[in-house]
């Protein structure tokens, strides 16, 4: 054992108990941590349910993530399937229902480390796009996991541009079947989760052909593996796409179809249908086909985008209150790195952003709940706004949170780079959110297209959706702030964001118009404006986020302590955004150089103010040690002891490498044991 | 086999030959690709040697990286040791010497995938810090790998702040030995490469105590494992620190010392020595102890920072010329994504940066070669400038290149996220360069400290090192450019960078002075300025990089085609920097809003110009397919076929997962094989 470095001596010199540096951070909180947790959860009842779910899950060894950082892709997959199946049992045992209050916390409790997420998208797409008969047939089977579903949209050669999908589904009137084919390699389905090794069925998106005419992309239920022995069905080629940056536990797969025949009833036909004689009938907007993806985009924000940033902040801020380095003042002991302005400037804006995004996510959910109800009543009017909002905010939040997690990782120095910190896996996972469910740049351009239309309408005095009415309110002028304290007035900074959002949009719309009028073709002109259109779309989302944060803080009037710290975070989020995008605000002189100096001063002052509450502010996120799964981020702050203990469990310490006998021993100077 | 999805049908529908979309990109190069490769290598002879080395290495199956993306940490380590040992044989066989021309290309040829890199740092530190006797004893043993060395500086609780290291070395006059100890867990050595499983020896940095007096940090050679059986030496606890974000092939280790005795001769004593009676003698600056790290910082830039960005650009640009998505013009076929302005705006500035950094790296090497000669002659005058330059440029380049690799990864959408693209491993590796050999923020602050001193000296009319003489040239005024073409005049933009660098430094120096004069303690005042000091240090390095690029382009006057395209890249690098940091240039009105619009217009125009040569510009980097190891980046552009073929080799497709029998089979509806 001494050979592998786990001597008793080593065990004996560590820390124990709660790290006093971290404990002291908690004694001076300016607000009630429990109160803030309740605010984040919505109400105390939710907090209670969430904690109960987390406790049940974390007590069950099947859901343990203890060895996660040491496992291979095969091991991760097997564990994820095991967890998914066990979860069904657990839910039954606990009486947790899919429509019950516990359900929304289960995914968070298992930290996303389960299989069959695409199975849920399979079910959701049938629920949204399927007829009553289709729902009645498939949903009960899927609910009981008597089949495993997937969602096969993306192809090797086609992602976000759905119209370009190349898989074909040709209707055969004689047999009343669709014949599905993968006409070339770029048409192979590629990436669908749960499809590489697990799924028995999948929803395939394919170009529908009836009597030689193409009707565009439609969804079809296709069985791909036998329910008896899991062998691939005739005409099916499928497998796993191999190693990825993360998501090792998911069997993202590929799928090729060769003359695969499915019955007419397997086309999801709530909104369109092919009748037995080949007549094609459409009910409602075809855009509804994309609505599944639109809702997925919003539903993923909380668990896949905002929570990871909250976790990264928790880990990095707790660690920064324990880690000491260099001296702030000569003669004193080394300082906590959280006391350095540069460290505060890395971490605290991320913390503020996590809160800002939590609140804007609530705003989006309200928007979508309203829209979803309308769509159920076949009123599709809000689809463009929903699509633009889901696109823009998914892009903005995923980009911001990914950058934020990376900043947290790098702010922890070398130890952040160890998988045991938990930060690398948060990063490698969240970065995918910039790509999946619509690549961010393309999404921002879709938002921009909506904004350009609304801007034209607003300028012409026509009605526009509520979220963009501000576009009609173009006010020239300058920022009226006179000193740095003025920039802690939300009216001042909200106005600055609004002004900048309108300026970017109007100047780009003008450029677009000029190009077209000078004879450049419309599509080419659009392309020449896209860099600036992306800026404009981001500025719009940034403005809404700041405005929503301000409104949220205003509503906290009966919670004084919490309102005060939330106001600081709101100010910090807003001023950090101006400081980091100074050029956008200075460009037309709305903000002057002297005012930017005031903003910088207020911004840097705020860092010092929020720093005092930094640890309680992450404690309020209420993550358990197990859910963080981080040697750096645990509640007790015993980072070095934990890093050392966890490292010893690594497979690299479980064996003497064969490399020694094979390659080193023959080489080393072994006349003497000691030189 | 059909079960695992590798049917003949699947093989049959792929592409073959060179992708015509990529081939067409190469027919219109405006310059000689071979000529540019020669320019990058320095001269044609270097290109010849480099290609010969690469060919020999890549022909040898031991150096294959074919299965790299599928291997576990243990497998990667074993392969890396095997490669390192085999490399010695190969060098002997080929007659390649450590001081020969081939040597500099070997590391590039094996793509960094070998063990014993820290063994080289071990040797370098002995060469630099050791006496002639120490060099004579240890270097021959190390050269023949009769021992494996490591470099144990970083501790669990101490990284960049070397003065804070806690390991102790107490001189025992009676036995003429140093007694080394790890007094607490935070003093454990943590991270040293080659130490977790391989090293027999290491250079330990420890606080030297003689007769109760501490003389600060010194380097000591310590044997940690037996040369006969590789068991840990008495008093040694060591092992592997476990999984990391990358560097799976390296056994980064931990080390604890308990009363480990080493002879007096094992303190590296070229610059300081403890005599038998305990008298401490210093020769020259103590700062020389840090010089190893300073030189390592510069020597790593090419292979670990710039080459990865070049590789990422090669992969992403080739892929973007093959990948098609959506339509630029209705009715046409889908467009190459490289034809979208937003894609150009992601990738082409990275390409320009790769060239800019290659050239500034040449500049740094010249600076260091000169400085190293002076130090050999015990003239330490240039140390502050060398230290500031190595710090600032290491920080700036690693940060910029890391961001650049991430942009390339994300610009390839979902396929970039597959390990098979080669991009994730480039990212997870390069991100470490922001942390190791000095954390970037701390390094930038060291550069800033140097700049503040030089600025004060320059303002007082005192002489300053050549690279900062510009600080004396504070000229007020405005940018004289009248139209967008003026911004393609290097005098105009170099002046803008210089102006901004001086402004940031002088305004922050003034803030620092004001704080101190208002009674804030010096260290606290410094802390309150650090966010802005970091900005100032970056602006200095950015300015030098732009200026050096301009001077490099000027020297290409007898290579017309190459000079023209390099001029475009230089303009792009400069204007992208202004566009992306607009606030810094607009702040005091040196650049007006109207001028920023001109800059934006020129910048966006350049994207279209350089796009035409984008593929030849990455071809000139001259990477082989094997060195890129990317399914997306190969010379022939057959991306989909290669992704599909490589995925099938994944271990996830080599077995039917036990998960099916264990968890799925009992669940699935198996009354019928088909629903």
List keywords for this structure.
homodimer; 675 residues; alpha+beta; Butyryl-CoA Dehydrogenase, subunit A, domain 2; Butyryl-CoA Dehydrogenase, subunit A, domain 3; 6-stranded mixed sheet; 3-stranded antiparallel sheet; 23 helices; 52% helix; 8% strand; disordered N terminus
**How is the biggest beta sheet of chain A arranged?**
6 strands, mixed
What is the CATH superfamily label of the domain at 291-621 in chain A? Butyryl-CoA Dehydrogenase, subunit A, domain 3
Low-pLDDT segments of chain A:
1-15
- The N- and C-terminal alpha carbons of chain A lie at a distance of 24 Å
Mean pLDDT value of chain A: 93
Most extensive chain contact?
A-B, 162 and 162 residues
Global shape of chain A: globular
CATH architecture of the domain at 291-621 in chain A: Up-down Bundle
What CATH first level of the domain at 291-621 in chain A would be assigned? Answer: Mainly Alpha
Structural class of chain A: alpha+beta
Q: Approximately what portion of the residues of chain A adopt beta-strand conformation?
A: 5-15%
């Amino acid at each position: 054992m001494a050979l592998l470095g786990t001597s008793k001596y080593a065990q004996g010199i560590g820390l124990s108990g709660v790290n006093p540096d971290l404990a002291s951070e908690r004694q001076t909180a300016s607000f009630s941590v429990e109160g803030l947790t309740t605010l984040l959860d919505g109400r105390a009842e939710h907090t209670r349910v969430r904690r109960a779910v987390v406790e049940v899950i974390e007590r069950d060894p099947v859901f343990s993530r203890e060895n996660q950082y040491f496992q291979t892709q095969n091991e991760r997959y097997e564990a994820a399937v095991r967890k998914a199946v066990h979860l069904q049992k657990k839910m039954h045992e606990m009486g947790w229902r899919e429509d019950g209050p516990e359900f929304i916390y289960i995914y968070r409790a298992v930290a996303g480390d389960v299989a069959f997420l695409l199975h849920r998208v399979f079910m959701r797409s049938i629920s949204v796009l399927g007829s009553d008969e289709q729902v009645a047939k498939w949903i009960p089977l899927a609910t009981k996991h008597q089949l495993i579903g997937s969602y096969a949209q993306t192809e090797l050669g086609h992602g976000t541009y759905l119209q370009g999908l190349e898989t074909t589904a040709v209707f055969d009137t004689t047999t009343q079947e669709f014949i599905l084919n993968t006409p070339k390699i770029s048409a192979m389905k590629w990436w669908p989760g749960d499809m590489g090794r697990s799924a028995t069925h999948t929803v395939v998106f394919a170009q529908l052909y009836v009597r030689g005419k193409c009707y565009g992309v439609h969804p079809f239920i296709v069985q791909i593996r036998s329910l008896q022995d899991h062998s691939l069905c005739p005409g099916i080629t499928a497998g796993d796409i191999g190693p990825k940056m993360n998501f090792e536990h998911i069997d993202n797969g590929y799928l090729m179809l060769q003359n695969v025949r499915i019955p007419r009833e397997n086309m999801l036909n709530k909104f369109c249908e092919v009748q037995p004689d080949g007549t094609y009938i459409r009910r409602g907007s075809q855009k509804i086909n994309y609505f599944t993806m639109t809702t997925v985009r919003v539903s993923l924000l909380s668990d896949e985008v905002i929570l990871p940033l909250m976790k990264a902040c928790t880990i990095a801020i707790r660690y920064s209150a324990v880690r000491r380095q260099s001296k702030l003042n000569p003669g004193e002991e080394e300082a906590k790195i959280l006391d350095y302005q540069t460290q505060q400037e890395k971490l605290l804006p991320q913390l503020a952003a996590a809160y800002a995004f939590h609140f804007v996510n609530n705003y989006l959910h309200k928007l979508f709940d309203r829209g979803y109800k309308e769509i159920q009543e076949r009123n599709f009017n809000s689809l463009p706004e929903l699509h633009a909002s889901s696109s823009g905010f998914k892009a903005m939040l995923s980009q911001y949170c990914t950058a934020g997690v990376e900043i947290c990782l790098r702010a922890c120095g070398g130890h952040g780079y160890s998988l045991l910190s938990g930060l690398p896996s948060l990063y490698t996972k969240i970065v995918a959110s910039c790509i999946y469910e619509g690549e961010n740049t393309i999404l921002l351009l879709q938002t921009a297209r909506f904004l350009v239309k609304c801007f034209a309408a607003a300028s012409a005095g026509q009605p526009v959706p509520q979220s963009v009415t501000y576009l009609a309110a173009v006010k020239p002028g300058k920022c009226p702030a006179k000193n740095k304290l003025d920039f802690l007035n939300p009216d001042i900074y909200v106005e600055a964001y609004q002004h900048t959002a309108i300026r970017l949009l109007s100047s780009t719309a003008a450029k677009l118009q000029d190009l077209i009028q000078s004879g450049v073709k419309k599509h080419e002109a659009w392309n020449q404006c896209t860099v600036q259109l992306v800026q404009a779309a981001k500025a719009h989302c940034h403005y809404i986020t700041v405005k929503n944060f301000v409104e949220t803080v205003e509503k906290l009037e009966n919670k004084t302590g919490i309102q005060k710290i939330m106001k600081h975070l709101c100010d910090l989020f807003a001023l950090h955004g101006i400081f980091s995008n100074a050029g956008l605000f200075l460009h037309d002189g709305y903000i002057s150089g002297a005012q930017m100096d005031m903003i910088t001063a207020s911004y840097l002052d705020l860092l010092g103010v929020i720093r005092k509450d930094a640890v309680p502010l992450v404690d309020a996120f209420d993550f358990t040690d197990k859910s963080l799964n981080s040697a750096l981020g645990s509640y007790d702050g015993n980072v070095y002891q934990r890093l050392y203990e966890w490292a010893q469990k690594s497979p690299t310490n479980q064996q003497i490498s064969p490399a020694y006998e094979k390659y080193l021993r023959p080489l080393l100077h072994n006349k003497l044991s000691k030189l």
